[in-house]
């Protein structure tokens, strides 16, 4: 009888000990949403890997929040780059009671999803949505760690006139929130620099045949063609430009500025034919060393190169975690005001400070071209 009693007492003690241990662990759920299926799945997976890398490192460091050891969990959702699927994914994360969300990748999914997160009071940091409207709805929960299209499109417009000496500039966009938005800003930049738009056409983000619009533009003899859209569409467009004998410079925003573009164009790109800009970047010096070290570690861990925005996802996760630590709480209502006041955070993508709208202050752009089928950096512009 005494033996049985000792066993019971021991079991109860073990149970109570386990309960005490579990009470000392704070589970923090971080949601991530991106297109991990569809034409730009390679970009969505790149983003998700950036989040997984950050989560793994946070857990390895053993961060404490409010005196409790934090255990970070990633809840990853696929929005396929579709606005309806994006809002459904957002609602799923809200229902799962996530503490914060990193995403979405596209402006077209980030903007409608931002209302879902705002209504729930859950902070959202996009690593790549550049449409200005994303942070213009007055939601206190909305942030981004990259420059917006006013800066991106405008800079590319001026660059096309002043550096590429564009005399006849044509514009194509894919009618998405991102593509049309960056094309509009590009056009403004061209005109502000004294350039002229010879023609403007549009397609959609799932198109594969551009013969009609390219033939129409060919008659205008453009020396620069700007495309507002993603690399999955830009690649086939470059192939068809080659087939039609159009030798214009091809310019685009961050959506085309990937390591996959040469493959998607089936090797039809000439050296210094394609110019693009990422909405972020670090200058030469210590910042570049940190950025390069991240990319090397990423490749070693996942056996793939960074496409575009994995480093920005990585920083976004860490900025969110840092705000929780400083607020001593993972409760969105408690750490959100601290997140909004983020200032001087040193990340792998540079220094992060949010302005009152949730935009990054003094956001950088990195200009690239392609040589020998590889991205080649030209300059960092602020």
Automatic annotation (TrEMBL):
Q: Which residues form the Leucine-binding protein domain?
A: 28-372
Sorted alphabetically, which SUPFAM superfamilies does this protein's record hold? Answer: Periplasmic binding protein-like I
Organism from which the protein derives: Roseateles oligotrophus
User: What protein name does the entry list?
Assistant: Branched-chain amino acid ABC transporter substrate-binding protein
Record family assignment: Belongs to the leucine-binding protein family.
Does Transport count among this protein's keywords? yes
Superkingdom: Bacteria
| Signal peptide region | 1-22
